[in-house]
Design goal:
The chain has about 200 residues and is of the alpha/beta class. It contains six helices and six strands, in the order E-H-E-H-E-H-H-E-E-E-H-H. Helices cover about 35% and strands about 25% of the residues. The chain has a six-stranded mixed beta sheet with strand order 2-1-3-4-5-6. It starts with a strand and ends in a 5-residue tail after the last helix. The protein binds inosine 5'-triphosphate.
Length: about 200
C-alpha cells in the first residue's frame, strides 16, 4: 500500500520530520514548491487548509500542508499562529526576554496537517506540551526547538534530541500519525492496494 503526497512547505525540517513519521504508513512524501499561501488567522487549522487548497488548485495532485506554532501560556498563547513571524523577528532570545523572571513557563506546540486527497479533504491535529527552558540548549531541529522541553521527555530540549526522538513526542509527528491511521482505515475499508 503506497500513496505519493506532496508537502507544501519551504521548511526542509518539516519535510524530514513528516517523511519519517509517515513512511511506516506507506506514504511517500515529496516537497512541492508552489508559493505557500499564508493567510492571517488565529486558527492553524484554517491556515493549513487554505494553504493546501490553494496549492491543490495549482497542482491538482494529492498533497498536505502543515501549519504549526508555539502557544505560551504566560503570553496568552502568543506567538501561536504568528510563530513563523515571531521567530524571524524577535527570535528565541526575544521569547526568553518576554518570559524573564516568570516562573509560569508552560507552553504547547500545535500542528495542523491539511490533506487534500480527492474526494477527501481533512485536517489532522497534534499537540505536545511542556515548558520553556531558561536558556537555549542543543543544535538539532529548528525554530523554537532549543527552548522547548516536552513533559514526556527526560528534561532535554527538542534541539537536544535526534529527529526520531523528537518524533516520539512532537505535535507534528502526532498529527502525521493521525493522518497515517486515517489512511490505513480508508485502505482497509476500500480493500485497495493503492490510493
Ligand atoms: P512553511 O510555512 O513553509 O511550511 P514555516 O517554518 O514558515 O514553514 P509555519 O508558517 O507553520 O512554518 O510556522 C511555524 C513556526 O513555528 C516555525 O517557523 C517555527 O518557528 C515554529 N515551529 C513550528 N513547529 C516547530 C517545531 O517542531 N520546532 C520548533 N519550532 C517550531
Amino acid at each position: 500500500m503506497k500513496v505519493m503526497l506532496g508537502l507544501v512547505t519551504g521548511n526542509r525540517h518539516k519535510l524530514a520530520e513528516l517523511q519519517a513519521a509517515l513512511q511506516p504508513y506507506g506514504v511517500e512524501l515529496y516537497q512541492v514548491s508552489v508559493g505557500k499561501l499564508e493567510i492571517q488567522s488565529d486558527s492553524i487549522r484554517e491556515i493549513a487548509l487554505t494553504a493546501a487548497r490553494h496549492a491543490y488548485s495549482k497542482l491538482r495532485r494529492p498533497l498536505i500542508a502543515d501549519d504549526s506554532g508555539l502557544f505560551i501560556e504566560e503570553l496568552g498563547g502568543f506567538p501561536g499562529p504568528y510563530s513563523s513571524y515571531a521567530y524571524k523577528t524577535i527570535g528565541v532570545e526575544g521569547i526568553l526576554k518576554l518570559l524573564e523572571g516568570s516562573t509560569r513557563r508552560r507552553a504547547c506546540f500545535r500542528a495542523a496537517l491539511a490533506l487534500i486527497l480527492p474526494p477527501y479533504e481533512k485536517v489532522f491535529e497534534g499537540e505536545v506540551c511542556g515548558r520553556i527552558a531558561g536558556e537555549p540548549r542543543g543544535a538539532g531541529g529548528f525554530g523554537f526547538d532549543p527552548i522547548f522541553i516536552p513533559d514526556e521527555g527526560d528534561g532535554r530540549t527538542f534541539a537536544e534530541m535526534s529527529l526520531q526522538e523528537k518524533n516520539r513526542y512532537s505535535h507534528r509527528a502526532r498529527a502525521a500519525r493521525a493522518l497515517g491511521e486515517w489512511l490505513a482505515s480508508r485502505w482497509r475499508g476500500l480493500g485497495r492496494q493503492s490510493l
